Amino acid sequence: MCRKYLFLILSFMLILVWNGFVFSQDPGIRDTARIECAENVQPDTQVLLNVYIFNDEPLGGFAIPLAFPNTVDNLDITCDSVSFVGTRAESSYMKTDSLSIDNVNNRLVIWAGWFPGELAPGNGPVARIYFHTGPAWDTTRFFPVDTLLWPPLTALEFSILPGYAIFPAFVKGCLSSAPFLYGDVNCDRQLDVADIFYLINYLFKGGATPTPLLAGDCNCDGEVTVSDVIYLINYVAKSGPPPSC
Asked: 179: cis peptide before it, omega within 30°?
């Protein structure tokens, strides 16, 4: 009986949110910074994460501060370098250097600037981050790679003109020794009501992106849409088939 009421409540909330989304969504496409997910990360290995940018206007520069991952407890991972070779940002005049990497606090800033020049509109990798893990790397854990505010001033932003910046959408990455779970969009290794609300918030309220994004594809149709929310509700509240591809 409780499952039945939970299903009805969640379905009703979804209808309300969907109606608000249909009549209020931004018709434009928001610029986005996205970090790759690295799976099957093992001890004593090199790890590569690609950083992607989608921009529909020319950029004079960008700054993407990251925590890799966003905790500092016994990680046994080191950021070695950042490379722009062969990426969309290779032509930048200024870019990330060794001072932009803080291995004590497990964070770094991916940044580039053009003077003169610009990053033309497009979509694709702008940088590659190289890590190496040590012998104590914990293979049982799943670590998100998230953005953060690096005091006093560094925040996630794209520069359009001198003195003018926009704040793009962000898709966090991950470092994991095990494959992600479909439907586990909040990365707690469980499939429950919290994942339903997380997915609803992402789709209709501009909330945080699932990590990785593919984790939100609960019905395995290659997209993350309202149908995945319904599929997840059916699994959690009605004992339907589990998300799996």
From this structure: no
Give yes or no: residues 120 and 221 share one domain. Answer: no
State the pTM of this model.
0.70
107 strand-pairing partners: 67, 102
Residue 17 buriedness (CB in 10 A; 0-12 / 13-18 / 19+): middle
pLDDT at 70 (0 to 100): 53
CATH of the domain at 22: 1.10.1330.10
**pLDDT at 21 > cutoff 60:** no
Residues 130 and 231 in one domain: no
Residue 163 inside a domain? The answer is: yes
- Whichever domain contains 38, its CATH number is 2.60.40.680
Burial of 207 (0-12, 13-18, 19+ CB in 10 A): middle
| Contact predicate 20/206, CB 8 Å | no
For residue 243, say if its preceding peptide bond is cis, omega within 30 degrees of 0: no
34-86 pLDDT tens trace: 898 887 888 999 999 999 999 988 999 999 999 876 555 667 889 999 999 99
